[in-house]
Specification:
Strand order of the largest sheet: 2-1-3-4-13-12-9-6-7
Largest sheet: 9 strands, mixed
CATH architecture of the largest domain: 3-Layer(aba) Sandwich
Structural class: alpha/beta
Shape: globular
CATH superfamily of the largest domain: Class I glutamine amidotransferase (GATase) domain
Bound molecules: zinc ion
Order of helices and strands: HHEHEHEHEHEEEEEEEEEHH
Number of helices: 8
Radius of gyration: 22 Å
């Protein structure tokens, strides 16, 4: 009887140990793929602003990549590298941080554009969100990249209403990365300067409940849904992610400010694509130099032409 009880207790201990090892390994995988804060969302808000060099040149771009939800480690690294090359070539200032306390009236006043580079989750306090909203509406510019448009920002209604204009549903899975045809829609828009009418881009393509076109956003480029397989697939489960009208790049006017969102940018490789690089350069140029939205004064066209002629290196540095 005692022997049987001891065997049972040994068996239970082995099962418990295996269970703990399995849970431990799963948590390591969750952390490694950047999903730690997707599983355990953070609401940490920074309180002490970073020091920004007093000799930062103007115009200047604030690159923000704080992740309180899913972390695109590679996409952030590749994006920072690309933005350093672009701002360097244009002789613009750039400051990269994951400290949300930079969103205060004094520090924001030093920047012309804020880039949400795969920023995710509840990254700013109510006060920081308010300061950003005031700064943007007074004539600032915002560029959102990839997960800036996912559903992790849903607690900030102003952000969804004014910068995204759509509710994220899911990204493709089956496979997760697919090359699709991107179709330029608004040839006259400066953000599409020197961008081909159609181009191929491999991406973890997002879908939304409906197109931001219905909310009055300016659609700049859309996906040809026949050019890839827009489904989310897990073993037997399959969800159709077709939108019909499926934009991936769009712009908006927010008070006296402007916004551009681009759905590309999951992997570092996305930022090595010359067309996507050109689009980021164009978007930053429009956000920095445009004085009116959506119509542009003539001097602005000249600025865009000179920016385009300066060229960029697709390979980075
Ligand atoms: Zn992604």
């Amino acid at each position: 009887m005692t022997k049987r009880r001891s065997l049972l207790s040994r068996f239970l201990r082995v099962v418990l140990l295996l269970g703990l090892v399995l849970v431990g390994l799963s948590l390591v995988v969750v952390w490694q793929v950047g999903a730690w804060h997707l599983v355990f969302p953070s609401h940490h808000h920074d309180t002490v602003a970073p020091i920004i060099s007093s000799d930062m040149v103007s115009p200047a771009v604030l690159v923000f990549s704080k992740t309180n939800s899913f972390r695109h480690t590679e996409g952030i690294a590749g994006g920072v590298k690309a933005l350093q090359t672009i701002t360097g070539t244009q002789q613009w200032g750039m400051f990269h941080t994951e400290n949300g306390a930079v969103f205060n009236e004094n520090d924001l006043a030093r920047f012309d554009v804020v880039v949400f580079l795969n920023a995710s989750g509840d990254v700013l306090s109510d006060e920081q969100e308010g300061d950003f909203q005031s700064w943007l509406q007074a004539g600032g510019g915002w560029l959102g990249i990839h997960s800036a448009g996912d559903d992790s920002h849903s607690e900030w209604q102003w952000y969804t209403d004014n910068l995204i204009g759509a509710t994220f549903t899911a990204h493709i899975m089956g496979p997760q990365f697919q090359s699709a045809t991107v179709v330029m829609e608004n040839q006259a828009h400066p953000v599409l300067l020197d961008v081909p009418d159609t181009w191929q881009h491999e991406e973890e393509w997002y879908s939304w409940e409906q197109s931001p076109r219905v909310e009055g956003f300016s659609i700049l480029a859309s996906l040809d849904e026949a050019s890839y397989n827009p489904v989310q697939k897990f073993m037997d489960y399959e969800r159709d992610l077709r939108m019909g009208d499926h934009p991936v790049v769009w712009a908006n006017c927010v008070g006296d400010g402007r916004s551009v969102y681009a759905a590309m940018g999951h992997k570092a490789e996305s930022f090595e694509q010359p067309v996507f690089r050109q689009l980021i350069l164009n978007a930053l140029s429009w956000l920095i130099y445009a004085e009116a939205c959506p119509f542009l004064p003539e001097p602005y066209d000249k600025v865009m032409t000179s920016v385009s002629n300066a060229g960029i290196s697709p390979s980075g540095n």
